[in-house]
Amino acid sequence: MNRRNGSSSRRPLRGPATRATPAAGVASALVAAALLSGCGDGQPGASAQTFMTNGPGTTTATPTGTATPTGTGSPTGTASPTGTASPTSTASPGAGSLSATKAPFTLPNAVSDAAAVSNNGKVLVFGGEDSTGKATNQVTSVDPNAGSATSAGSLSKAVTDAAAATVGGTPTVFGGNTKGGDSGGVTDSVQSFTNGTSQEIGKLPSPRENHGAASTNGKTYLVGGDDGSNTQGDILATSDGKSFQNAGKLAKPVRNPAVATTGANGAQKVTIFGGQADDGPTDAIQQFDPQTGKTTTVGKLPQALTNASAFTVNGTTYVAGGTSNGQQSSKIYKFDPTDNSVSEAGDLPEGVENAAAAATGNKAYLLGGKANGEVSDTVTELKSS
Questions:
Q1: Cβ distance 175 to 207 under 8 Å?
Q2: Cα(183)–Cα(202) distance, integer angstroms
Q3: Are 243 and 250 contacting, i.e. CB atoms less than 8 angstroms apart?
Q4: For labelling, which of 171, 178, 213, 373 has a CA lying 20 to 30 Å from the CA of 219?
Q5: Which residues contact 178 (CB under 8 A, 6 or more apart)?
Q6: For 109-141, how does the pLDDT look when each residue is reduced to its tens digit (9 = 90+)?
Q7: CATH 3.30.390.10 assigned to 31-73+82-384
Q8: Distance (Å, whole) CA 340 – CA 67
């Protein structure tokens, strides 16, 4: 479906904006910051394969808001007086690259468009869309130390295309869609998850799906998405999952972006990578400043990207996978908040879209998603190479 996706990319909206449908079976790649199912017997694990990128390659972003991939680029970026930066994206084969390996274990069930958070050294995966296209209430615990993914309980309400974050120490799931690939079903429900059980603790101001969540300075921000018909530009803030304030607006409303907290403590921002705008997929990197409540476009991805996953490992934010040019991508990109540039940081074992993502310790995990046109149970481990 589509939080990170449904039938093939996310479920098309019923309003004027429709979602692009990615062609299955093509791997081409990405990676950057945070968000992310299962119950049942474990399936046989996949054999480990490591893929790394060491070759150079650059792209250039134009100051007009349209990315122009050229294969070459200057090493510097220039910010315009309007506050919109146009950095150059340069591949860095050295520091900051990641190796991506299929874990020797899988999720209990294949799932796409789930949400995920790190929790006490583990990763919790919430809901998502199963291989039949229906929303699920399953919660899966991924234990990196044990090398396992097991059932951890269930949500009170089955959802896919939701966002998740830890609020006041409690894993919390925001909105989503209760019907998967079917029309309708967008919900305003906010669910907490503690000790294997879930309960509804509040409601969003309005139903929302296909959005992202990021937390900084004691608040969680919900960014982008749609209400089933209209792309949402409002940025919501909450400190308890029960009450919400309108904290700002996106410069360009999008659904299915990759969202992460970036920058140093005390000056952190919420960074929004790509997504599906009403006029099509975008390569824009937007940044919301909680201090000022303003959002600016600060840079460009090498190409337009939707349904990607973002996460932070060892202080560095990455964007991985997604849908680009109608194909599932395998690229991993590193984001540098000092100049808002991106550089190639590796390749996933295969192209994947709508995978849940979270980091714990010095590793990140991509969970499920869609690969080669099929809902996946694959767990991909990413670590510094």
A1: yes
A2: 24
A3: no
A4: 178
A5: 135, 157, 158, 159, 185, 186, 187
A6: 999 999 999 999 999 999 999 999 999 999 999
A7: no
A8: 14
